[in-house]
Amino acid sequence: MAKVLAALRHHWKKSTFGACLLGWGGHWLYGKHCDNLLRRAACQEAQAFGNQLLPATMPLKKATVFLNPAACKGKAGNLFEKNAAPILHLSGLDVTVVKTDYEGQAKKLLELMENTDLIIIAGGDGTVQEVITGLLRRADEAAFSKIPIGFIPLGKTCNLSHTLYPESTNQVQHITNATLAILKGETVPLDVLQIKGEKEQPVFAVSGLRWGSYRDAGVKVSKYWYLGPLKTKAAHFFSTFKEWPQKHQAALMYLGPTERPPEEPEEKSSRPPLYVRLYRRLRSYWSSPKEFPQEVAPEDWEELKVSTIELSIATRNRQLDLTRTEDFMDICIEADSVSKGQFVHRGSLKMRDPHMCPEGSQRIQASRCILQLPEGTEGSFGIDNEEYEAMPVEVKLLPRKLRFFCDPRMREQMLQAAVQ
Predict the structure, then answer these.
(1) H-type helices in 51-115, by residue range?
(2) Which domains does the chain have, with CATH numbers?
(3) Which DSSP string do the residues of 351-390 spell out, in sequence order?
(4) Can you tell me which residues the record assigns to a coiled coil (predicted)?
(5) For residue 175, what pLDDT is reported?
C-alpha cells in the first residue's frame, strides 16, 4: 500500500489525469443507465396502451411518421429508433415510417399520402414546415387538416416543442415525453400563417416569418464554431462591420384582428328523419323569396412605411391562449436606431427566442398583411427557420387550422393561466 501511495505521489500528474478520466467515465456510464431507465419506464407506459382490448370490428389506428434522418446533424434517425420507435410499436398503432432523403421531399410525399389516422413529424422546425406545407397544399386539405398531428422533437431547433411539452434538459426524457403525449390523445389547436408570393405556391408556417439583420447574422453562427460559447456574439459582432446602421425599407398594409367564431362541435348531429326533411324543404319552397344580402363593406386596410433593423410576423402559438376572443398575428417592427453593443446583446437573446420583440419596437396585431419590398431588394426570409428568397408577400392568418398533440400538463397550465 505504501508503495502504491508513493507511486501515485511520484507520478501525481498521471494520477490526477487518471482520476479525472475515471470520474468522467463513471458519470457517463451513470447517465447512460439513467437514460435506459427512462426508456424502460416509457415503454412500460406505452405497453399499457397496447394491451387495451379493442372490438373485433375496430381496425388499428394508422400512424404515418415523417422522419428526417438528417436532422440534428444526422443523429435524428438513431434518436428516433432508440427512443421513439419502441414506444410507438408497443402502443398498438399501425406505424408506417417514411424517411425523407432530401430537402423538400416531405412536401411531395404529402401529395401522395393516403388516408391515415395520425400524422407524426419526427425532426426539427424545418421538417414541421415542410409537412404542414405539403398537407395544406393538397386539394382535399379541408379534410386532411382535421387529422391530428404529433411532433417528436429531434432537430437542432424545435421551437414548437416549447408550446407542446414541458421543458427538459434531458434529451431522452424530452423525446419519450413527446411520444407518450401522442398516445394520451390531448390536442390543442394551433394557428398557421399562409405566406404567398406573387408567383410561387403558398408556404405555411406555425411560428412565423423573419426578415432583417438579426436573422442574417444568426444563420452565420455555425461558421464560428471554433470560438465555442462566443460564436453567437462573434457572428453578430462581425456583421456590424457592414454598412451601419443596417436598415430594411418596406411598405406594409394590414388588417386588424378578427373576432373568433365559436368552435365547431367535433361530432356532427345525426340526420333528421325523412318527414322532417320533407317538411323543411316544402317550407323553404313556399316561403317568400329571401332578400338579396347587402353589399359587404370594403376592408379597412392600414398602410405603413417601414424602416427597421428587423421585421417579424409571428403566430400566437408560443403564448397559446385557448380562451381568447380575437384571432391575430403579431407584427414586430424593431427600431433601426440600435447601437452595435445592443445589436450583439439582442442577437444572442434572439437565438433563444427568435420572435422576441424588444422594448421600443412597434407592435401591430393583424389578421392579414401585405409586405411590399423595394425593387432590387436582396436577402432572405426566415420562415420557421427555413431560408426563402425575400420577395413581396401576402401573409394570412389561418386561425386554429391544425390540431397538435400536447402533453396533458401543458394543456392544463394553459387553461389555468386563462382562468387567472
Answers:
(1) 71-74, 76-79, 85-90, 105-112
(2) 22-185 (3.40.50.10330), 208-261+299-401 (2.60.200.40)
(3) HH-TT---TT-EEEEESEEEEE--TT---EEEETTEEEE-
(4) none
(5) 93
CA 23-24-30 angle, to 5 degrees, is 90
8 A C-beta contact, residue 373 and residue 128: no
pLDDT at 292: 47
Using alpha carbons, select from 213, 218, 211 the residue that is nearest to residue 337: 213
Bridge partners, 331 (sequence order): 313, 364
Tell me whether the omega of the peptide bond preceding residue 245 falls within 30 degrees of 0, making it cis: yes
Q: What is the pLDDT of residue 267?
A: 47
**How large is the angle between the packed helices 171-184 and 12-50, nearest 10 degrees?**
0
Amino acid at 398: L
The DSSP bridge pattern shows strands 329-333 and 310-314 to be antiparallel
Phi first, then psi: what are they for 210, rounded to 5°? -130, 145
The residues that bridge with 327 in the sheet, in sequence order, are 258
Sort strands 380-383 and 368-372 into parallel, antiparallel or unpaired.
unpaired
CB 62 within 8 A of CB 94: yes
Q: Residue 281, class by beta-carbon neighbours within 10 Å (0-12 exposed, 13-18 middle, 19+ buried)?
A: exposed
Whole-number CA gyration radius for the chain: 26
Rounded mean pLDDT for each run of 10 residues along the chain, 420 residues in total: 69 73 84 88 90 82 92 89 92 91 86 88 91 91 91 88 88 92 92 89 92 91 90 91 86 91 58 70 64 55 92 91 88 91 91 87 93 88 90 93 92 73
